[in-house]
Amino acid sequence: MGKTYSEIDEGLREFVERQHVFFVATAPSSVDGHVNCSPKGLDSLRIVGPSTVIYLDYTGSGAETIAHVRENGRIVMMFCAFEGAPKIVRFHGKGEAVEPGDAEFEALLAHFRPGPGVRSIIRVEVDRISDSCGFGVPYLRFEDDRTQLPAFAEKKGDGLENYKRQKNATSIDGLPALRFAESELSGFE
Questions:
Q1: Which CATH number belongs to the domain containing residue 79 in this structure?
Q2: Which of 5, 51, 137, 159 is least surrounded, with the fewest CB atoms within 10 Å of its CB?
Q3: pTM reported for the whole predicted model
Q4: Tens of pLDDT along 68-89?
Q5: Closest by alpha carbon to 169, among 122, 106, 119?
């Protein structure tokens, strides 16, 4: 029943863009490291080419995805239908974190209407695209986006940069995450 695709065609694009939530999974190279899986939402995803996807990475209490893609690039994104026909789509690929101050950041950010708290943009060069049935995924009805994340970032204001330095310099396994936070903690900036 599952199928693989050579690129993100119009049907896949339409399916992906209809989803209100998607999931991102990464892992460190170490067998002792923690695998990470994170839900994403808030109109934060754009397909910018036949095999290129970008999404806004908002400030959070951890920075596992950034640390893992810095270390080895491995990433998978999963989209599943909670409404309509059952379907799951996965994008496997190589990810990179593009941070504010990087040459491409502003051009990538122009694809969005970002809210406060964006700490990076994750760009994925997709090398495997597949779908599967999704028969076991329940029906769930979208009600609305949560407002807590943008409100948190707005409330922090200028203190958000300090929060990122404290919480996003390394992963839970001690891998380097945000470059600006890492360099400032090390006293090199």
A1: 2.30.110.10
A2: 159
A3: 0.93
A4: 999 999 999 999 999 999 999 9
A5: 119
